[in-house]
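hey can u check if this looks right to u? its 371 residues, i copy pasted from the old doc so theres a chance i mangled smth
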Amino acid sequence: MYIPASGFDEIITAAEGLNPKDDEVVLILLAEEQMPDITTLISSLNQRGINFIGGIFPRVIHGEDLHRSGAVVRLLPLVNKPLLVTELSTSTINIQHQLSDLKFSKGSTAFILVDGLSTSIHSFLSLVFQQLGVSVKYFGGGAGYLSFQQQPCIFCPQGIYKDAAIIAFIDMDSELGIRHGWKRIAGPFVATRSEGGVIKELNWSNSYDVYKKAVEHESGLKFDEHSFFEIAKGYPFGIYSEGSEDIVRDPFQVTEKGEIICVGEVPENAVLNILKGEKSALIDSARQAIKDCFSSGFNNIEYCLVMDCISRVLFLEEDFKEELVSLSREISFNNSSVVPEGALTIGEIASREQGILEFYNKTIVVGAFHE
């Protein structure tokens, strides 16, 4: 459900109204504008004995509407207790023993919320996948703020954190749709030097020089006349992925050395393409993501969660409404009782057809949950 009011009283009332049991958790997706005092919200939920997890996002989604304030609140059944992981980027992540002890029933989903600006998301997800493998499906997204300034954005009964992640082990199966609609226009290039999300060299040359030449040639725009992000938001990188769409990496800043900083890690020696967005293709990708969820024949979907990248809004601007309309209508065509809900994210998380866990940018990820 969507809670339009910004006060914590309304959110608490909604959470209490769900009557959560010991083996359930209340998911709270908060839009960043006019937020309630998070410390007070956490304290009040704890006083009432309500188990909860949540994140702060640039916007939240309910049906065909995008909201700058308010919250999406949803009750999720648990198969294991949620796991909080802090200091992702500043310490050695040591959760192997906690993950190795978990037991799963058939058809479980690991719902993951992570600080979208952490520099070790790929390493964290790789560790999770090493331990859990294909015993579960994976779905989630990156929390954070439209300013792209790292601040506390992940919360649970223990408090609110930055550079952190929460894994909630949901006692439901899920059908996943992962689409972005961006098309290759230049490449392939090799990331001959990279570190984390920083691309230092492409094809043994300065990464910005290579990127600038290709994008200016394609777009007719000049980086000297526009901010880097103004042009780059329409020309992301794609990590080559055999048999499926490239995995998008979103360039948002260039350093004085000409190194390009992306949301999400770019492995050294990764094969990259430069991609271009056409509005019609991006909008249609939302519909295709829903079709993928229902292609396996499951019609007993109980609810549908959506993690849609904030940079798609920045690119589509007013036309983003068409993406939400396309998504909602495709769901209604398959299951008229389900209303899509979710958030605009800083990076998206899902497992691909082969079960492999990935972190995406500029992508829409849909989770259709069922027994």
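The mean pLDDT is 91.
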